Amino acid sequence: MFKILVVEDDVKMNRIYTSALEQNSYLPVAAYDGVQALEKISEEQVDLVISDVMMPGLDGYALTKQLREQYPELPILMISARESYEDKRYGFLAGIDDYMVKPVDINEMLLRIQALLRRAKSVSERKLKVGGTILDFDSYTLSFNGKTTELPQKEFLILYKLMSSPGRTFTRRQIMDELWGYDTDSEERTVDVHINRLRERLKGCEDLEIVTVRGLGYRGMKK
């Protein structure tokens, strides 16, 4: 599952972008200025950055220059109300990979994200392998002991999330917010139901397991 950092100081627009990404099976990480973006990206691995230009403190151009120095292969999509050739030129000179002018067509934005990820050869990394167990994001399948099982979307996304960061504890609320969306009416115990089903599916798997962290949530572990 691809993690995308959204850097936009307009709270409403930030929410629009992150919601669209969630609905298309991406994991958005929200930041509201350049400084916060650098903090976020130092804490977790990000596959792509969407950045506004005009932001307090550290603007999009300065942010891009710093990101490009530290993460030379990281795809960066800049979104701005500025539409002149010079603004675009300055963005590309700073190190961006693509540029969109506001107001943004969300469907076009999603297409550009797919193209950037493909260009960065990230699409080829959509298989997560733990020992002899394979999680294939494109087909939502789990394979081990010579058997391949297609999982329901939510079950697969939970397992993929847990095993993408083995040993890290995720609360039920974190899982709900990222996979069901912040506005869901579903209760947190829904996560427990999916975890129980996954544990049944993982019986006989010698490579990974889901551990309950009492009072907090769950973590994926390599056996």
Description:
This protein starts with a strand and ends with a strand. The protein is 41% helix and 25% strand. The strands form three sheets. A five-stranded parallel β-sheet has the order 2-1-3-4-5, with helices on both faces. The chain has a four-stranded antiparallel β-sheet with strand order 6-7-8-9, covered by helices on one side. The protein has a three-stranded antiparallel β-sheet with strand order 10-12-11. The longest helix has 14 residues, at 106-119. The radius of gyration is 19 Å and the shape is elongated. A hairpin with a 2-residue loop joins β6 and β7 (133-136). It has 223 residues and is α/β, with parallel strands linked by helices. It has helices at 11-23, 34-43, 60-70, 85-94, 106-119, 153-164, 172-179, 189-201; strands at residues 3-7, 27-31, 48-52, 76-80, 98-101, 127-130, 133-136, 141-144, 147-150, 169-171, 208-213, 217-222.
* Separate helix tally: 8
What's the shape?
Answer: elongated
Helical residue percent band: 40-55%
Report strand order across the widest sheet: 2-1-3-4-5
- Number of DSSP strand runs: 12
Poorly predicted runs: none
Work out the radius of gyration: 19 Å
Straight-line N-to-C gap: 22 Å
Task: Return the structural class.
Answer: alpha/beta
Q: What's the SSE pattern?
A: EHEHEHEHEHEEEEHEHHEE
Q: What is the strand content?
A: 15-25%
Mean pLDDT: 90
Biggest sheet: strands, sense, closure? 5 strands, parallel
